[in-house]
Each structure stands twice: as C-alpha cells, then as structure tokens.
Amino acid sequence: MGIKELEDFLYQETDSEQWHLKHEGELSHFYNKLEKVAFDSGEYYCFDFCNTLKTDTIGIVRESRYTTIPAHFHKDMELNYIYSGSCTFVIKGKEITMKQGDLCILDSNVIHSAVSYKEYGDIVINIIFQHEFFDHLFLSKLSQKGIISSFLLDVISKNRAHNQYLIFQTQENFKIHSLIQFLLCEYFSPSQCYHELMQAYSAALFIELINTMYDSEKYRLSKKNQLFSILKYIETHYKNCSLTEIASHFGYSPNYLSNYLKEKTGKSFIEIKISQQMAESTFLLIHSEHTINEIAEIVGCNNITYFYNKFYDTYQCTPREYRLKYRQMQEEIP
C-alpha cells in the first residue's frame, strides 16, 4: 500500500459513517451491546479492544466521522493522532481541541470522550498498545537516556497505577507524520515482516516523541508549566543541584517546586534526582568498563551501600547482575 492508496482508504466512507449521516445525533447500535460500568465515581463505557488486539500487541482504528464518542475508558494504552482536520476531546474533565499533527498519549483508565462532530476531513487515528508491547528490549533501553524519557516510559509502564495523558504538538515534525503513515500502511496491508516492522516503526515513533520532549518549544504543556524545562535542568545538573537552587533558577519557592514536581510526576525531587543517577549508572554499566564503585562516584553517590540499595530498589537486581544481563542480551541480538 502506497501513500495515495492509504489516504484513499482513510477518507473512504464506511457503512457505519453512512448510517450516522442518516441518523444524525444518534449513537450507533454498538453501544446497545456495551454496558456502562462503575468507575471513578461514575458509570462509563469500557472499551477493551478485544477484537482489535486479538492476535497482536498493537492495533489501529480510524475513528468514525459524522458522530461523537461518549465518555469512556480502556484498559490498554491509546495513542490518538489527528491525521487531518481537528477534533475536540474532553480528557479528565478538561476540553482540549487538537488539530492536524497533534498527538495524544492516553494511559489506561483515563476518562475521555470526543465531543466534536467530525466532518469528512477530520481523520482521527487511534493506535492501541497492550502494555506487554513495552517489554520490548529496544524500548526498555530508553529508560537509560534520562529522567525525561523515563517520565514518558513511566506513563506507559504496566507496573504502575494508570490515569495520565500527554499531548504533543507535532504539526511541524514531518518524521512523526511519516512514521504514522508507515504504521498505517503496514497495518492495513501487512507484509511478510509485519510484526518486525510494526515493532520498529512504533519504537521509532516513541523515540521521536522523546526528542520533542527535550525540545520544550515543541511540547505543548511545557510552554505553560515548564515541567520539561525543569526536568531537563535536573537531568543536566543532577550531580550538584539542590531543590533550593532549582527553585531560584525558575523563579519558584522551594516548597512550591517540591509540591509541583510531586503533582506532575508522582515523584519527589529526591526521587527524580535518584532516577537520573540510576539512569546514568545503567548507561555506564553497559557502555563503559568502569568498576561499580567508580560508577557510583561518577553519578554522585559517595556512599556505595546507598548506591547498591537504590539501584536494587529501582531495577530489582544488583549493578553487576544488570551489567551481565544486558551485555548478554546485546550479544544475542543478530
């Protein structure tokens, strides 16, 4: 499938859309078979994507046009991409209008709805990922990059409580759009290497999203609240920075910054700093010949017992076990 064939396919009206054109304002019969469930002090539809994810960890759906989507949640992670046009969502009670090129990562259990009536040119792509997808070795290595990439991975990790979302403005990023197109072409017209290509394109997409998080001018929320500017500053100065010094740098009081970081990341300043120390140490364990004692000193942990304890708390193994495990895994990659 080429790009022209893909776009012809995406814009073609489905039977469901033709039904909506004849029954304006009505929900499809799909909802008659779907019961609401009690969740988060209310009753909402639960989408489990059981058919979409029947044989794979990745599924793709193009949302129906000429209708809205009522409030719902799902057990898997969803990535919404505005392929063309626009769409207004309500996410955790907040109305957000996304335009062509915008992208939203919706974690499990986030209550959301699409409240705007989608016209012919409003193409919204849903990419659904089972959390098992993120056990993939290549993606697991991203946590070694630093606390910003760790923050994204924490949102999609299967090992934590889920209710977050992230919005990216990627209208000017042609690589994001191209990777989405590659995914769509492969999904709707599978090749012999379907599984490998879906994994590779998805991994590349998340890596490019991490790039946009490091570039605060391209990340929507950072313009408003400086979260990723602060995380980037900690990532760069983690060996010597203090909460008081960072608060002064960004014009906040230490108490406000401490509460702000806890609210936005779920971690205290000390926990964030430790995350960066651990990320740096894993990189050095794999890519250097430094001893473990030397690595502890390099990342700012002068107490070796403290370093071992924090490393084990983070990775459930010792630094030596981590080094042996990942070097062995690298040797096994063809």
Task: Give keywords.
18% strand; 47% helix; single chain; alpha+beta; 334 residues; six-stranded mixed beta sheet
Give an overview in words:
- This protein is α+β, with helices and mostly antiparallel strands and 334 residues long.
- The protein contains 14 helices and 11 strands.
- The strands form 2 sheets. Strands 1-2-4-9-6-7 form a 6-stranded mixed β-sheet, with no helix packed on it.
- Strand 1 and strand 2 (42-47) form a beta hairpin.
- Helix 5 packs antiparallel against helix 6 (194-214), helix 9 (243-250) packs across helix 10 (254-265) and helix 11 (269-287) packs across helix 14.
- The protein starts with a helix and ends with a helix.
- Mean pLDDT is 83; it is low at 158-162 and 217-225.
Total helical segments = 14
* Residues in helices, as a percent range: 40-55%
Proportion in β-strands:
15-25%
The end-to-end span amounts to 29 Å
Q: Give the oligomer, counting copies of the same chain as homo and different chains as hetero.
A: single chain
Provide the low-confidence segments as ranges.
Answer: 158-162, 217-225
User: Judging from the principal axes of the Cα atoms, what is the shape?
Assistant: globular
What's the story with the biggest beta sheet? 6 strands, mixed
Widest β-sheet, arrangement of strands: 1-2-4-9-6-7
SSE run: HHEEEEEEEEEEHHEHHHHHHHHHH
What is the number of E strands?
11
Rounded average pLDDT? 83
Computed over alpha carbons, the radius of gyration is 22 Å
Derived from helix and strand composition plus strand pairing, the structural class reads alpha+beta
